[in-house]
Structure formats: structure tokens, C-alpha cells
Design brief:
Layout: E1 39-43, E2 52-56, H1 66-79, E3 85-91, H2 100-119, E4 123-128, H3 131-142, E5 146-150, H4 155-167, E6 172-175, H5 183-186, H6 194-208, H7 232-242, H8 256-264, H9 272-281, H10 295-299, H11 305-313, H12 320-343, H13 355-363, H14 375-379, H15 386-398, H16 403-415, H17 420-434, H18 441-452, H19 473-479, H20 482-505, H21 528-539
Helix pairs in contact: 2-7, 3-4, 6-12, 9-12, 11-12, 12-18, 15-20, 16-17, 16-18, 17-18
The structure holds flavin-adenine dinucleotide (FAD).
Flavin-adenine dinucleotide binds next to α10, α12, α16 and α18.
């Protein structure tokens, strides 16, 4: 067995010194809007007199958008009072497993964005197809002077940007409009963990965590090439029908305005009754309102993380602990995910794990598994564990699993499948398919943290997990009211099913007719007998748990005493034993 270790000491949580002061505007070039350190030149050249095209991808908003501000600034630099800016959005037919839920949310947000841009004199082009072709075509068609794009560390986006750069004749600028501290300014390498990135982020906050300028108005779009009218209803119909297996959810209204309301509006995250819960209750899945629930907005760029940080910081004097915890998650942890994916192109493969983790997972890949589930069983929430089933169903039906449960959920997939590669593949498949915030660097890093020790350290060695941090049911039982969480998910499932029935009766096909078949019991475990069996088995789980420090990605904490060797005795109706077990 490995030795007990304490995690290294970490400095204090994020210090964002804006409370009570009017934040300064970002330090830009003289007379400019955007700090040049936010901008990377992907293709050099002087900016021509034609319109500037912003290829909008990850940051789908008008306000608080450094990429748009850079496009405006560059257009003004080249054409002065005649500056013309066009925003182009390319809709791809398929994106990393996204369904109606994600495409619907995105398109509804974009539909609101179009008139907001037009009011500022900015044209909106909706393109469809392969961006490697549509974007260069538009650039040529408009005789553009510059192409600006926002930044994402994910492989597909990088590949598209490379192809576009090769195809266009104009210069191309990339702007990190997503991170408070641009990923390349925060660090020039893959960081070991939050403890090494945190001081670097903090050092840069005075320079980057500043108020955004207002979006200037431009002269109306006068270019001879006008955007085609966007057939929003037809587009929505198309994506909702195509992705109907994963229906939309209605608790999270899409769009930039709704995003800001979710942050600062009545009932929003920054109201006293919610913010005051964040520090103490954010790891309690039975108290979901303690979370900000902002991740869908942040993922689709309908809300700038920097806006969320600036607004939260205003409450520091009254809710210091809550604000610091929130900023730690929002800025340090989230930007750690971008750092990882930026410097680790194989971010979703076991190959990217540290040697200690790979070695240890390899050593234990032959370990006997008490339960082995197929992807289909997991997807339907049919395991012996009511808590796991509830988290899976929360994701399937609400489109957002509680952050604490995501860690437990992923770790159990590692425990109940045939090996780490299969576990990673299944977790990413489910996460990207059902989470509204899926297909995000934080998703890939969350899975790799849970299963491959990324940004974590080695813990006491144990079966299957090796030195990867372990979590179990009994640890959850000590931390929160499992029954209350399962009852909450039950309500979500019943409501979703009732709504689907209503929609089917009304003849609306997009309402998720093909969501995975799930059990009807309180935990969705399939039958009363299976649920009863599951309960009996869960009680027998070992007491040991390597307590997580409260948030994915944290390496703090101590190791609890080694396990008494208690094993789950029976296989549930829905689980299958590993080959060779008897
Ligand atoms: C297995 C697993 C899968 C995950 N999948 C995703 C995913 O697909 N998309 C996604 O955005 N996040 C993912 N996370 C990270 C985290 O669980 C979510 O960001 C969080 O639950 C979102 O809910 P919230 O906005 O209410 O969180 P809050 O607690 O209110 O946090 C505010 C914001 O801080 C950031 N944040 C919080 N926790 C983390 C974290 N652990 N790592 C990085 N950033 C964090 C997010 O941007 C979040 O919106 C995953 C974590 C794990 C362990």
C-alpha cells in the first residue's frame, strides 16, 4: 500500500481587489480597447481596408466580448469612421455528440444576439457547413481586411482555425475572450495543478480583471454583400429534430440577457439567499440552489467569466468566503482546464496522465471488478447504486449534474468498467451527450481528474483505482442527505416524463422521445427488487474513502486509514460480473 501524504500547502484563495472601487478599463494600447496581450497573430499581415470579420465560435455574446472589441478596434484603425464589422457564425451539422439540448440552447441565444449586433451596425452572417470552407469563402466574398476569431483549446476548433488560416489571404488574429487571464499570458506551460497556476493567475489579475468598455456603435452595414435573412424557425426545427434523442431543458433560459439575469437578477446567483450558501453548501447535492448554475452560459459564451468575476467581487465585503470560493472555481479551476487542454493536445486520453497514474492504473487493470456495467446500462441509470443512478438521471433529464456528484459519478465508472480507457470513453460520451455544459475543457479535465489523477496526487493504493483518489457511497452519506438528493432527482425525472408525454400528445417530435429507457423506481434502478438488492449491497461497501477536498481538481486533504477488506457480496440484477469471476 502507498504511504499517507499530506497535500502541499496552497496560498490563500483568489484576491480580486475590486470591491468598493470602480474597476479600471483593461490596459490597452494607447487609445485602444483591448490589451494586446489578449491577441495572438495566427497569420501575419497588415490589416486591409475591407470589413473586419469576426468568426464567432466559443464566445457567443455582444457585451463583454474582447474578440468583438478587437474586431471593432482593428476595423476603426484601418477604415476610421467607415469601419465595418461582420460577425460570422458557422453552424456545423454535428459537434462532439451535441443534441437538441445543446444546439437548441445555442441557436436560441444566437437568435437574440443578431438584432443586438445589428443595432450597433454590425452585420450577422449565419453560415452552414464546414467552417474550413465557409469562413474563407465569406472573407473572400466580402473582400475583408482582417479575420478575427475567438479562442478555444479544443482540438476540433484548432484544426478548423489552422485550415482557415491556410485558406485565407488576409491576416488572422485570435483573441482569448473566454479567460480572465489569457491562457498564453497566464502560463507558458502545462501546469501541475491549481497550486502552481494560482499564483500566476493572481499575479496577472490586476492587469486583466478590469471593467469592459461598452461596445461602440458603428455606421450601419453598407457593404454590397448583405447577410441572407436567417430562417431561425427552420434552423431550430432542423437541429431539434436531428438531435431529438437528447431533448431541450427549460430551467435555463438561453441568451445573453438571461445569462446576466441568472448572475445578477432577482433570484440570481448573487442574491443574498443564494450567494450566502455557496461557501458551505456548494458540495451538497441536496441543496442545488447553492450553486451558480452558470456553466451553460459560460460554456456557450453567453456570459463572460470576467463579468461573473467582476460582479461577484462587488459582494466580497459581505460574503468574503463565498466570493473567494466562487472566484477560485470560476477563475483558477476553470482556467486550469484551459491551460491543460491548451498545452496537452491529447487531453482526453489516458496517455496524457502522469507516469505515477498510468503505472498504477496499469498495475490494477487486471483487478477483479465486483460490478461491470455496459455503456447502455450506465446510460439508463441501471446500476446497483441508487446515488449513482440519481446523478446519471439528473444529467439525462436536467442536463446538468451537480458538481459534487460529477466526481463520484466518474469515479464509479472507472470502478465498474473493464479498464481506464473504456471508462474515460464512456464518461466523455455521456458527459458530452447530456450535459448542457459538455464538450468543454472543464469536462475533459473533470473526467481526467477523476479517473487519471490529472492535477491531483497519488493516494493510498487500492484495488482498481491504484493510487487514483477514491470516493464511495458511505463518504457521501456522511456529507449530505442522499435520500433528499434522490427525491429531488425523482421529481426532475417525473416532471420531464410528464412534459414529454404532453409534448408527444401535442405532436412535437423534438421532445426527446428517444431518451434512454430508465427505471421507474426512486433511483431509476429498474425494479423494486433491484433497488432493494442495491440498498443491501451498498451498505456493505468499505468504509475507506479518500475524501476529496470539496471540489474537483483539488489536491488538498489527507488520506484516511486503509480499508478494512469488505467487498460487495452480490451482483445486482442489472450488473454483470467480470469474465472469469465466479
Ligand atoms: C467528471 C466531471 C465532469 C465535468 N464536466 C464538466 C463540463 O462538461 N463542463 C463544465 O463546464 N464543467 C464540468 N465539470 C466541472 C464542474 O463540475 C462544473 O463546472 C460545475 O459543476 C458547473 O456548475 P456550476 O456553474 O453551478 O458551478 P459553480 O460551483 O457555481 O462554479 C462556477 C463556475 O466555476 C467553474 N468551475 C466550477 N467547478 C469547476 C471545476 N471543478 N473545474 C473547472 N471549473 C469549475 C465553472 O465554470 C462553473 O460554472 C466537470 C467536473 C467533473 C468532475
Amino acid at each position: 500500500m502507498g504511504t499517507k501524504r499530506k497535500a502541499p500547502e496552497e496560498p490563500a484563495a483568489a484576491e480580486v481587489e475590486t470591491a468598493g472601487k470602480k474597476p479600471a478599463l483593461e490596459a490597452a494600447a494607447p487609445g485602444g480597447l483591448v490589451n494586446p496581450k489578449r491577441v495572438r497573430v495566427l497569420k501575419a499581415g497588415s490589416v486591409g481596408k475591407g470589413p473586419v470579420v469576426l468568426w464567432m465560435s466559443r464566445d457567443q455574446r455582444m457585451n463583454d466580448n474582447w474578440a468583438l472589441l478587437h474586431a471593432i478596434e482593428a476595423a476603426r484603425g484601418a477604415a476610421g469612421g467607415e469601419a465595418q464589422v461582420a460577425v460570422a457564425f458557422n453552424l456545423v451539422p454535428a459537434f462532439l455528440g451535441a443534441g437538441a439540448r445543446q444546439f437548441g440552447f445555442m441557436l436560441r441565444g444566437l437568435r437574440q444576439l443578431q438584432p443586438r449586433l445589428e443595432e450597433k451596425g454590425i452585420a450577422f452572417f449565419m453560415l452552414k457547413g464546414d467552417p474550413a470552407q465557409t469562413i474563407p469563402d465569406l472573407v473572400t466574398h466580402l473582400d475583408a481586411g482582417l479575420l478575427v476569431t475567438d479562442y478555444s483549446p479544443l482540438r476540433l476548433g484548432r484544426q478548423w482555425r489552422e485550415q482557415v488560416c491556410a485558406a485565407v489571404r488576409v491576416p488572422v488574429h485570435e483573441v482569448d475572450a473566454h479567460n480572465v487571464v489569457p491562457v498564453w499570458a497566464a502560463s507558458d506551460k502545462r501546469e501541475i495543478g491549481a497550486r502552481t497556476l494560482r499564483p500566476k493567475i493572481h499575479r496577472h489579475l490586476p492587469e486583466f480583471l478590469r471593467e469592459f468598455p461598452e461596445v461602440p456603435s458603428l455606421p450601419p452595414w453598407s457593404h454590397p454583400v448583405k447577410p441572407e435573412p436567417v430562417e431561425w424557425e427552420a434552423l431550430l426545427d432542423e437541429v431539434l429534430t436531428r438531435g431529438s434523442a437528447v431533448p431541450e431543458v427549460d430551467w435555463c433560459a438561453p441568451g445573453e440577457e438571461a445569462a446576466l439575469a441568472a448572475l445578477t437578477g432577482p433570484g440570481g446567483f448573487l442574491t443574498a439567499s443564494r450567494l450566502s450558501l455557496y461557501d458551505t453548501k456548494r458540495n451538497d447535492p441536496a441543496t442545488p440552489r447553492a450553486l451558480s448554475n452558470l456553466s451553460p452560459y459560460l460554456h456557450f459564451g453567453q456570459l463572460a467569466p470576467q463579468r461573473a468575476a467582476l460582479e461577484a467581487a462587488k459582494h466580497r465585503a459581505k460574503y468574503k468566503a463565498a466570493v473567494e470560493s466562487f472566484l477560485e472555481e470560476l477563475v483558477v479551476r476553470r482556467e486550469l482546464s484551459d491551460n491543460f487542454c491548451h498545452y496537452t493536445p491529447n487531453y482526453d486520453s489516458l496517455d496524457c496522465a502522469a507516469e505515477w497514474a498510468k503505472e498504477s492504473l496499469n498495475k490494477h487493470r487486471v483487478d477483479k471488478r465486483e460490478f461491470v456495467y455496459t455503456r447502455e446500462q450506465l446510460e439508463a441509470g441501471r446500476t446497483h447504486d441508487e446515488l449513482w443512478n440519481a446523478s446519471q438521471l439528473e444529467m439525462v433529464h436536467r442536463g446538468k449534474m451537480h458538481g459534487f456528484m460529477r466526481m463520484y459519478w466518474a469515479k464509479k465508472i472507472l470502478e465498474w468498467t473493464n479498464g481506464p480507457e473504456e471508462a474515460i470513453e464512456i464518461a466523455i460520451y455521456l458527459n458530452d451527450r447530456y450535459e448542457l455544459d459538455g464538450r468543454d475543457p472543464s469536462g475533459y479535465v473533470g473526467v481526467m481528474w477523476s479517473m487519471a489523477g490529472i492535477h491531483d496526487m497519488g493516494w493510498t493504493e487500492r484495488p482498481i483505482f491504484g493510487k487514483i483518489r477514491y470516493m464511495n457511497y458511505n463518504g457521501c452519506k456522511r456529507k449530505f442527505d442522499i435520500k433528499a438528493y434522490c427525491a429531488y432527482v425523482d421529481r426532475i425525472v417525473s416532471e420531464a416524463k410528464a412534459k414529454r408525454r404532453q409534448q408527444q400528445q401535442a405532436g412535437k417530435p423534438a421532445a426527446g422521445a428517444a431518451a434512454p429507457a430508465v427505471g421507474t423506481g426512486p433511483s431509476g434502478s429498474g425494479s423494486a427488487a433491484a433497488a432493494a438488492a442495491a440498498k443491501a449491497e451498498v451498505k456493505e461497501e468499505p468504509e475507506e474513502e479518500q475524501e476529496e477536498a470539496g471540489s474537483a481538481g483539488k489536491a488538498e486533504g489527507t488520506v484516511k486509514p486503509a480499508a478494512k477488506k469488505a467487498r460487495v457480496a452480490k451482483s445486482p440484477a442489472s450488473g454483470s460480473k467480470r469474465k472469469g469471476d465466479s
